[in-house]
Specification:
The protein is an all-alpha fold. The protein has one domain (1-13, 20-92). Helices cover 40% and strands 0% of the residues. The chain starts with 30 loop residues before the first helix and ends in a 13-residue tail after the last helix. This is Macrodomain Ori protein. Belongs to the MaoP family.
Length: 119
């Protein structure tokens, strides 16, 4: 990643709450993506939170990408967007079984008849 102007983080970046075993071992990131996150994640996080200001054009573009994800050009930007989606987004949960909802449950016009109790 020497072809980038992006600053290395002051420390290695880890997310022990969402990825306690590491980024690559989670199965969501490749080894290359893990390296990008650990090397540059601290800087990307600080830029996103406003703790530091951008020093070059690449870091300024990174801030624009945070509000307009479709403008992501570099691997760094795409990996950070992927991290945000996985770490802060909703987890998808898939089951192996399921059932169709009955017509009664899905029909909004359906009104249940009151149950009369015998005294």
């Amino acid at each position: 990643m020497s072809d980038t102007e992006f600053r290395h983080g002051k420390k290695r970046f880890y997310d022990n709450t969402k990825f306690p075993r590491g980024f690559a071992k989670s199965g969501d990131f490749t080894l290359a993506e893990e390296e990008i996150l650990t090397l540059y994640g601290d800087t990307m996080f600080a830029l996103e939170m406003g703790d530091i200001t951008p020093e070059n054009a690449e870091e300024k573009h990174f801030l624009k990408v945070l509000s307009h994800p479709h403008k992501a050009k570099t691997k760094l930007e795409r990996v950070w967007l992927k991290y945000i989606q996985l770490a802060r987004g909703r987890k998808r949960f898939h089951t192996l079984n399921g059932c169709k909802r009955s017509a009664i449950e899905t029909n909004d016009d359906y009104e249940a008849e009151p149950v009369l109790e015998d005294d």
